[in-house]
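Continued from yesterday's entry.
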Amino acid sequence: MATTTLHDFMERLIAMGGTFILRNEHGSMELRGQDMYLHPYEEWLTVYHINAERPEARSHLHLKRHTLQTAAVRRSEGQTPHLAFFKAGESCGDPLLVWYFPSFYDWSQGKTLIPDNVARFESFVETYGEQVCFTEATG
């Protein structure tokens, strides 16, 4: 299992341009776009839109650094894979956060495969494997 900090991992995901889905028993929230950046502050990591007039003026995502401890790749036939994020001691069931890789398919073209996005995913798996454990930042 690969290890990295949640901060570094989130920066890598944001650079790939996927979609975050935060969910709980009451519902879910989706955050997507190619214009995101990560802002660390104390115990929080926040994903903001770059082009917002003020960071809090547009949809954004606040994550507590220590809540998410692991992430695992999940695959389903005919769908773009995603990462399921869990707190310590969990690795199955409903994840706290989901991040979808950039779509493998161009749905406007009859589900045509997008080879560049498949290659990005394969490169990600070569680097991190199927599971990642988050460590504390040092220094």
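--- second protein ---
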Amino acid sequence: METSLRPLGTVMQLLEQLGHKVSYAYDDLVFVNDNDFLLQFSNTAAALSLFFNKSCSKQSVDQLEQSIIPTADNMGLSIVTKGTYSMTGQDDENLRIEFFSN
């Protein structure tokens, strides 16, 4: 299966416009500075999945969804909330990320 080019620059602009900053981009994942959420690119260039950290408050989740999804639409991106994630450090200095569906 072929993957389209990922519009990381557009995603970075979106996040900066909303007061966030990309702290790290790895493969199909975009980590955000506060770790309340992360974005995952799909095989379709302009489509992303939104995952919230399990420790993120319901109020923060609601506020972010209400701002990021319509702003992304205006920029030609499609963001869909897919679930939550947890991230833990490992002894070998790697991170373990577990995703949970809604």
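The mean pLDDT is 91. The CA atoms of residues 28 and 41 lie 5 Å apart. Will compare against the first tomorrow.
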